[in-house]
Amino acid sequence: MKILFSGNKFKYEVEATVKLFIPGQRFEFIYDCVNAEGDIICVRRKECKKHTWLFAFCRIGEKTAGHTVKILAEAADYDALCEHELCRCVYFSLMKLTGINPVWGLLTGIRPVKKMTELLEKGFTEKQAKDMLKQKYMVSDKRLDLAYDTAVTQLPLLDKISSGSVSLYISIPFCPTRCSYCSFVSHSMDSARKLIPDYVRYLCRELEIISGIVKDLNLSIDTIYFGGGTPTSIEASQLKIITDTLSRCFNISDVREYNVEAGRADTITREKLEVIKAAGATRISVNPQTLNDSVLKAIGRNHTAKQTVDAFYLARKLGFNNINMDLISGLPTDTPESFKATLNKVIEMDPESITVHTLTIKRSAGLYENAEKYITSPAAEMTDYSIDILPENGYRPYYLYRQKNTVDNLENIGFSKPGCESLYNIFIMDETQTILGAGCAASTKLVEANGKITRIHNYKFPYEYINRFDELMKKKSEIYSKLI
Ligand code: SF4
Q1: CATH class for the region spanning 160-476
Q2: 354 CA distance to ligand 1 centroid (A)?
């Protein structure tokens, strides 16, 4: 498909708008052109003396649709207004032509709640804030309610961030096998096993270096998050080496939240859970994704639903009183009935939080090759069911984010019982607290006093992380100049 521009070059936002309706396609961009053969989207700005006309015209096969608006040539923020109004023209044209009505409307960013939070912080009422977002971005009522409820849960927690506090992310980038939808830097154990002892050693060295920085800058660790990969895919003894290093280097008793993404049931053992518990972890995740065995098989997981259920109750028995369970809507071969059965069973198990992701199809994922099959999956019905049923069972939304290439442009929503919200998840999305990342593919996000954010990315692959460790640690000295 071709996207033609005339009198403007608003490529990025126009493309993002088109992708709301036509996902998974590559576009050809042509400038200073108003017509061409085949399927086209033409985006045109025509400036006259007092007014500017903005047009969009779409043709797909035999169908055509268009939309036009007129704005004052002297309008405030003229260029930004033109860009937004042109996107609205594209949006309305494609809505007419395809019959699709995106749930988040024209809102394309990854943090829709931030827009709601900003309006509430400026003193707008719930109704005013919702009306403004509906008018400007055409967000559906259900998502406006969701964004509002999430913002209201987050606001008091964001207020409690003390200055000088930072969070610490620790990456264990290994998994027993690679799930078909995975786009993370995770390495299956077979290929990476021999690297693990060295990886653990270097990771501990990095933690020691970070602890030096934390002391020098008089910072305190507020939350800790072990993610990956699957942190529990390494041996209990290796986990213990890392958690012992943490306890030696940092004042764990001051940490408000200590998360470990135990993740997949095929990696969870009593011994590992005991190591995590003894280290002081306050919150773990045991992630079913689905409790349907045939779907688990279809996504390349080598465990059964029963193993997840058993792992959950084992964690309970060992005293974990804050457990999260992740689910994914729109998984290959899953159906609305099967998703609902999974969610109902998880609610019955009574974890403190349930996170509902929507399938995202990224280029680096195994199922990307057959992506077209999943673009029209019933994910929306599954996600909507979660939004309805979880609050009825005592869970409320507390964090939410969107990703590119998510089926139906949906979102990922963290629900929790009141008081069990994950602070780390809120902080990482709100970008108000510095996060120090350790391990391969971890990123350090430095939030300066003026709100400016600088990122330092660790190397993506374990062998690179190990071989170029000293070089990487030099880069990390930038933390001093940004946080002093
Ligand atoms: S468990 Fe998570 S990180 Fe590991 S392969 Fe599956 S999706 Fe990727």
Answers
A1: alpha beta
A2: 18
Measured in Å, residue 154 CA sits from the centre of ligand 1 at: 28
Mean pLDDT computed over 22-34: 90
Q: Is 360 helix (H, G, I), strand (E, B) or coil?
A: strand
Distance CA 309, CA 301 (A): 15
Three-state DSSP state, 209: helix
If one residue of 171, 172, 177, 179 were mutated to test the ligand 1 pocket, choosing by the most ligand atoms within 8 A of its CB, it would be 179
Pocket of ligand 1, beta carbon within 6 A? 175, 178-179, 182, 184, 186, 228-230, 263-264
Distance 303 CA to ligand 1 centre (A): 13
Pick the range with the lowest mean pLDDT from 28-32, 33-37, 238-242.
33-37
Is the model's pTM score more than 0.85?
Answer: yes
Using alpha carbons, list the distances in angstroms from residue 66 to 75, 117, 222, 312.
23, 34, 52, 53
Using most ligand atoms within 8 A of CB, pick from 171, 177, 183, 184 the residue to mutate for ligand 1: 184
**Domain definitions of the chain by residue range:** 2-98, 112-153, 160-476
Tokens of residue 227, six digits: 């993610």
Q: What does the pLDDT read at residue 18?
A: 95
pLDDT at 213: 95
Alpha-carbon distance 398 to 158, whole Å? 11
Q: Which residues of 38-68 are buried (b: 16+ CB within 10 A; e: fewer)?
A: ebbbbbbbeeeeeebebbbbbbbeeeebbbe
- CA 65–ligand 1 middle distance (angstroms): 42
Q: How far is the CA of 276 from the centre of ligand 1 (A)?
A: 20
Residue from 171, 174, 178, 297 whose mutation best tests the ligand 1 pocket (most atoms within 8 A of CB): 178
pLDDT digits (tens, 9 = 90+) for 403-418: 988 888 899 999 999 9
Architecture of domain 2-98: 2-Layer Sandwich (3.30)
Q: What is the largest CA-CA distance in the chain?
A: 76
Q: Mean pLDDT over residues 263-277, rounded?
A: 96
- Going from the Cα of 450 to the center of ligand 1, the distance in angstroms, rounded, reads 36
Those residues whose C-beta lies under 8 Å from the C-beta of residue 114, and which sit 6 or more positions away, are: 429, 430
